[in-house]
């Protein structure tokens, strides 16, 4: 997925943020077969929901409805204040970086709002690439804790999370937060997560993706799969997407899955 500037359009109904985050256009890929699952897919920095939907439309997952929102356009510290589509502000991608909890909460709430109107018998998931992956993984931690960083309740029942070339925001403090609650421990253990990362990634370092996986396991997420791709940079390849398809089908028990 390329990095480029995209104008935003519609606004978010998020109630969790004090800043006004204007989210862009949402693109939907309808299921070609029986609707068994809905997954919100989050693009990378500077990208948009349209390009994400084009990638997902080509996948052999006929029972999934894909919802592809576009992030708000905002100044990004990592880019010297350049305005582009971003799920949250980020200054540096490292364990020492300061997390934009307000931005993360607003984006996670926007995703939850998109999932909240899906039929009760449909399984729900979140996935993403790069910064979108970080937002998806952050949503997994909100699900486990039952709340956002600002304390507002997180009410969506997630069944699967996928993160490609991403990282875990708030990695070092997660275990302590989850261990305070038996319910959080139970919910973390129930949620399968797939993380994929290329070992030649020069944007989000491979070892940071690997560490994020270990932090999730230490925090109590018992079903975390970490897949490494030799020679892969900061992009996706068909082999990776095929493995994503197989994992999603098996984890969500979709028709035709070979689990």
From TrEMBL:
List, as start-end ranges, the regions of compositional bias called Polar residues.
Answer: 8-19
Q: Where is the Phospholipase/carboxylesterase/thioesterase domain?
A: 27-250
Under the GO molecular function aspect, what terms does this record hold? hydrolase activity
Q: Note down the stretches annotated as region Disordered.
A: 1-21
InterPro entries named among the record's database cross-references = AB_hydrolase_fold, PLipase/COase/thioEstase
Pfam families attached here?
A: Abhydrolase_2 (PF02230)
Highest taxon, organism lineage:
Eukaryota
Against PANTHER family, the record matches this protein to:
ALPHA/BETA-HYDROLASES SUPERFAMILY PROTEIN
Q: What is this protein called?
A: Acyl-protein thioesterase 1-like isoform X3
**Species of origin:** Punica granatum
């Amino acid at each position: 997925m390329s990095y480029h500037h995209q104008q935003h359009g519609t606004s978010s109904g998020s109630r969790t943020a004090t800043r006004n985050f204007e989210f862009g256009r949402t693109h939907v890929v309808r299921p070609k077969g029986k609707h068994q699952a809905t997954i919100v897919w989050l693009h990378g920095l500077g990208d948009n929901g349209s390009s994400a939907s084009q990638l997902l439309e080509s996948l052999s997952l006929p029972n999934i409805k894909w919802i592809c929102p576009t992030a708000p356009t905002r100044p990004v510290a990592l880019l010297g204040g350049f305005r582009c589509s971003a799920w949250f502000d980020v200054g540096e991608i490292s364990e020492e970086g300061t997390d934009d909890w307000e931005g993360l909460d607003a984006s996670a709430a926007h995703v939850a709002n998109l999932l909240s109107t899906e039929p009760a018998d449909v399984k729900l998931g979140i996935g993403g690439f790069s910064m979108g992956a970080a937002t998806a993984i952050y949503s997994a931690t909100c699900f486990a804790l039952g709340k956002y960083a600002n304390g507002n309740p997180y009410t969506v029942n997630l069944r699967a999370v996928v993160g490609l070339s991403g990282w875990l925001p708030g990695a070092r403090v997660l275990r302590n937060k989850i261990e305070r609650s038996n319910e959080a421990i139970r919910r973390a253990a129930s949620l399968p997560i797939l993380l994929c990362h290329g070992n030649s990634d020069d944007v989000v370092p491979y070892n940071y993706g690997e560490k994020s996986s270990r932090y999730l396991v230490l925090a109590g997420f018992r079903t975390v799969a970490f897949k490494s791709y030799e020679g892969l940079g900061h992009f996706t390849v068909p082999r990776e997407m095929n493995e994503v398809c197989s994992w999603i089908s098996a984890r969500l028990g979709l028709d035709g899955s070979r689990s």
